[in-house]
């Protein structure tokens, strides 16, 4: 799996992303460390930044399996306690402004050091709890937490549970939210356990928005891809500060749609590819999710019955590949 850290604002990429391979690259502003019954040390791998510079993720360099798309899965040490520490940067007389470059800890895009103590986390993993809301630098404002791993590989394929707007929706507001909420139950209601996603997989290479009109013309539309964490009950508000997200909602923030007229109708197709991955590095393949209505099946809502022979879902129906008239989904 990946280790994911979400910040409340955009961070300076140079301060929170880098490689620690234990040989010639020793990025240490954010560290993942392991301890098993026999050994302890730093987990080597790479920290990347995404989601508008608000999310960082760690992927180890220990190749251990493959996902359904044939991509390599990289594992954390098994049967171990993993402790992750995000270090605050050194501050000077003008705190919270960090001093020195390159920074020795996490800094936002305006140069302010992390106020890690502002969250009521568990200090038992080695970080000092400091609840004054002021960035004081290391080690007072470092943020750390720990979790345990098993030797099992989670191979659950992510599925879409809910789409906004719905399939074949009409008279959609010009600024309507476009989103897809993920689960692990093939899109059948009620939703089961949620699936969180790798933020770094939510890019324009894997997610997009295509406008097409009834006369097959198109227009440019700007958009960006973000994510929202959902918690128990698929709500956006965590029950408590240290609650772990149970699902990810992918959001396509877009410019205004063009309004349809009696002469010209505009259709908009959001699409997601198999490049979208769960936080366990499992690709979205087959592409299960909500399906078109079928009165012969007692499924509410219906699911797009994809399988290895028909892995794509177009307009709510399973297909061999994504294409053709699927490019004009409203």
Properties at a glance:
four-stranded antiparallel beta sheet; single chain; mainly beta; 29% strand; globular
Task: Walk me through what this model shows.
This protein has 330 residues and is an all-beta fold. It has 2 domains: 146 residues, no CATH class; 176 residues, no CATH class. The longest helix has 4 residues. About 5% of the residues have low confidence.
**Tally of helical runs:** 1
Q: Could you state the oligomeric state of the chains shown?
A: single chain
Q: From N to C, what is the helix and strand string? A: EHEEEEEEEEEEEEEEEEE
Overall, the morphology is globular
| Biggest sheet overview | 4 strands, antiparallel
Query: What is the tally of beta strands?
Result: 18
Radius of gyration: 22 Å
Largest sheet, spatial ordering of strands: 1-6-5-2
DSSP helix fraction? under 10%
The residue ranges in which pLDDT falls below 50 over 5 or more consecutive positions are 118-128, 294-300
Number of domains: 2
Helices and strands in order:
Elements: E1 3-6, H1 13-16, E2 18-20, E3 30-35, E4 40-42, E5 45-50, E6 55-60, E7 63-66, E8 72-74, E9 81-86, E10 143-148, E11 159-164, E12 178-183, E13 207-213, E14 223-230, E15 247-254, E16 266-272, E17 312-314, E18 317-319
Antiparallel strand pairs: 1-6, 2-5, 3-4, 3-9, 5-6, 7-8, 9-10, 11-12, 12-15, 13-16, 14-15, 17-18
């Amino acid at each position: 799996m990946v280790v994911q850290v979400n910040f409340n604002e955009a961070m300076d990429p140079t301060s929170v992303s880098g490689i620690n391979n234990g040989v010639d690259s020793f990025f240490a502003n954010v560290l993942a460390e392991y301890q098993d019954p026999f050994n302890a040390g730093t987990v080597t791998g790479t920290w990347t930044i995404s989601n508008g510079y608000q999310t960082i993720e760690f992927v180890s360099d220990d190749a251990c399996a493959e996902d359904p798309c044939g991509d390599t899965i990289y594992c954390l040490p098994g049967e171990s306690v993993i402790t992750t520490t995000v270090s605050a940067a050194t501050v000077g007389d003008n705190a919270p402004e960090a001093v020195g470059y390159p920074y020795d800890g996490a800094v936002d895009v305006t140069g302010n050091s992390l106020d890690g103590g502002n969250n009521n986390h568990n200090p038992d993993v080695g970080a000092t709890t400091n609840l004054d809301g002021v960035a004081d630098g290391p080690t007072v404002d470092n943020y750390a937490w720990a979790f345990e791993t098993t030797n099992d590989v989670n191979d659950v394929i992510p599925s879409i549970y809910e789409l906004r707007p719905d399939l074949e929706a009409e008279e959609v507001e010009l600024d309507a939210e476009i989103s897809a909420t993920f689960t692990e139950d093939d899109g059948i209601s009620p939703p089961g356990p949620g699936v969180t996603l790798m933020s770094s997989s939510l890019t324009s290479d894997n997610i997009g928005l295509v406008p097409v009109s009834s006369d097959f013309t198109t227009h440019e539309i700007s958009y960006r891809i973000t994510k929202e964490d959902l918690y128990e009950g698929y709500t956006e508000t965590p029950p408590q500060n240290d609650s772990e997200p149970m699902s990810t909602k992918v959001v396509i923030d877009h410019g205004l749609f063009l309004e349809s007229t009696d002469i010209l109708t505009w259709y908009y197709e959001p699409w997601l590819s198999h490049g979208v991955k769960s936080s366990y590095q499992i690709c979205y393949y087959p592409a299960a999710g909500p399906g078109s209505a079928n009165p012969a099946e007692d499924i509410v809502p219906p699911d797009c019955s994809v399988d290895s022979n028909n892995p794509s879902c177009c307009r709510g129906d399973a297909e061999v590949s994504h294409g053709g008239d699927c490019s004009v989904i409203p």
